[in-house]
Amino acid sequence: MIDSKAKYRRKNRALLAYKQALRRAGPAAPPWLTPEQHAQILAVYQEAQAWTEQTGIKHSVDHLVPLKAQSHGIHYLCGLHVPWNLRAIPEHLNRDRCDWFPVGERPPDDEDFDF
Questions:
Q1: Nearest Cα to Cα of residue 63 among 20, 96, 108
Q2: Three-class DSSP category at 63
Q3: How far is CA 68 from CA 9, 12, 60, 87, 103, in A?
Q4: What share of the chain is helix, strand, coil (3-state, %, to 5)?
Q5: Which of 4, 21, 41, 66 has its CA 20 to 30 A from that of 59?
Q6: What does the DSSP assignment read for 20-59?
Q7: Residue 103 CB neighbours (<10 A)
Q8: What is the DSSP letter of 65?
Q9: Distance between CA atoms of 114 and 110, rounded to whole angstroms?
């Protein structure tokens, strides 16, 4: 028998992932975000959850510019946890990219990944 907490967690995976990401992002989640922008961020987490359910392939939310980008082991760039810096992609692609960001290059977009 599944208890009520487990049912809630299963039903609200995207919301719980969104809240956990806000906590983890710390100062990268600016206090000036509007309620509409918070709703846009939640929508990206809901999109990742929907793609996971539709395809059977785990999707996660990726920061186009990582919160702590590094190149050759040196941190040099900090992205923000904002709607325009987020996208839902397959988790294995997000894990492969980790916090790497190429120096002097543009941020990646969806065309840079084979889905």
A1: 108
A2: strand
A3: 29, 28, 17, 17, 13
A4: 50, 15, 35
A5: 4
A6: HHHHHHGGGS-TT--HHHHHHHHHHHHHHHHHHHHHSS-E
A7: 11
A8: S
A9: 8
Per-residue pLDDT of the chain (115 residues; tens, 9 = 90+): 568 888 888 888 888 888 888 888 777 788 899 999 999 999 999 999 999 999 999 999 998 888 776 665 665 677 888 999 999 999 998 888 766 665 555 555 556 555 4
Roughly how many angstroms between the first and final C-alpha of the chain, as a whole number? 37
pLDDT at position 110 is 56
Encoded tokens for 46:
């809901």
**Amino acid at residue number 45:** Y
Q: Cα angle at 21 between 98 and 8, to 5 degrees?
A: 125
Q: Count the residues in the chain.
A: 115
